[in-house]
Design a protein that fits this description.
The chain is α/β, with parallel strands linked by helices and 284 residues long. It has a single domain, classed as TIM Barrel (Alpha-Beta Barrel). It is built from eleven helices and eight strands. The chain has an eight-stranded parallel β-barrel with strand order 1-2-3-4-5-6-7-8, surrounded by four helices. The protein is globular. The protein binds flavin-adenine dinucleotide. The site of flavin-adenine dinucleotide (FAD) has 26 residues, from strand 3, strand 4, helix 5, helix 6 and strand 6.
């Protein structure tokens, strides 16, 4: 963890573009609560193949209007170089300085993978088109990407993104401190030196979380899954126990030298704020 101790990446919040006007109203209310916490930046997800391009742009605009440094995600699978080039120019014109560069997953029904196959190619493209304008974040997987044949290959592929010009990494969410610590140690052994910020998913709804985790390869440890499962539909107990477990996770990570935390807010202020307050992150 030595590489991480010199970085102070701070705290950031992730949102997704809402699909309805009602969702947008909720996001705007959450935005103002999050703005009061003074994050280093906020980010907005982007559907592969450009499926949320307009929504991402609008949400980025909504967040910037509150004075928040905003980083759009950009997933390249299913997109052409011209479309990505145009979007990068639009982001530069909007005053955006940070991008989260991803491969993304092919939307079902879509066949054409486009001109990019992996995130390292996107990072390389962003650098060749825009030099050092953007601070580029990439995704990291302490429990390894579900499509990776081996942990070693996944680490080598992570290294490609860093060598292509990534400045920092945000991890997939996880609930095992050890998985993160070992991942960082592996990166150090590969000579990688960049902030690797843990992604934190607050626990509010076990069934939804279990579904999500299955799809993205994040593991809910047995001890945690069993307890949450046993609470059935009692959402209040799930939230209370989920909060306790997540606060403990964040505390261990920060004590071990994690450079910051990136919260997957799911556009809801209360669950992330509860973790924030329990850890007194505003005082850090
Ligand atoms: C912080 C974070 C934010 C995210 N935001 C979004 C979002 O906004 N929109 C969205 O659609 N998805 C998002 N995702 C999900 C992400 O797009 C998926 O996990 C996707 O499956 C992989 O994207 P990646 O950028 O990590 O891909 P890559 O780094 O390209 O890796 C994908 C797989 O390919 C392998 N691989 C990588 N490079 C090579 C190579 N050169 N040759 C052979 N194999 C290779 C890797 O080992 C891995 O198994 C996010 C994930 C994280 C962790």
């Amino acid at each position: 963890m030595e590489s991480q101790k010199k970085y102070r990446s701070g705290f950031s919040f992730e949102f997704f573009p809402p699909k309805t006007e009602q969702g947008r109203e909720k996001l705007l209310a959450a935005r103002d609560q999050f703005a009061a916490l003074k994050p280093v930046y906020v980010s907005v997800t982007y559907g592969a193949g450009g499926s949320t391009q307009q929504g991402t742009l609008e949400t980025v605009g909504d967040l910037m209007a509150a004075g928040l440094a905003t980083a759009p995600h950009l997933s390249c699978i299913g997109s052409g170089a011209d479309a990505i080039r145009a979007l990068l120019q639009q982001y530069i014109a909007m005053g955006i300085k940070r991008i989260v560069a991803l491969r993304g997953d092919m939307p079902s029904g879509m066949r054409d993978t486009g001109e990019f196959h992996y995130a390292n190619e996107l990072v390389e493209f962003i650098r060749s088109e825009t030099g050092n304008h953007f601070h580029i974040e990439v995704a990291a997987y302490p429990e390894f990407h579900p499509q990776a044949p081996t942990a070693q290959q996944d680490l080598r592929n992570f290294k490609r993104k860093v060598e292509a010009g990534a400045n920092g990494a945000i991890t997939q969410y996880f609930y095992s401190v050890d998985a993160y610590l070992r991942f960082v140690d592996d990166c150090e052994r590969l000579g990688l030196d960049l902030p690797i910020v843990p992604g934190i998913m607050p626990i509010t709804n076990y069934k939804q979380l279990a579904r999500f985790s299955d799809a993205c390869g994040a593991e809910i440890p047995r001890w945690l899954a069993k307890r949450l499962e046993g609470m059935g539909e009692d959402l209040e107990s799930i939230r209370a126990y989920g909060l306790e477990a997540t606060v403990e996770l964040c505390r261990h990570l920060l004590e071990a030298g994690a450079p910051g935390l990136h919260f997957y807010t799911m556009n809801q202020a209360a669950p992330t704020q509860a973790i924030w307050e329990a850890l007194a992150l505003g005082d850090r």
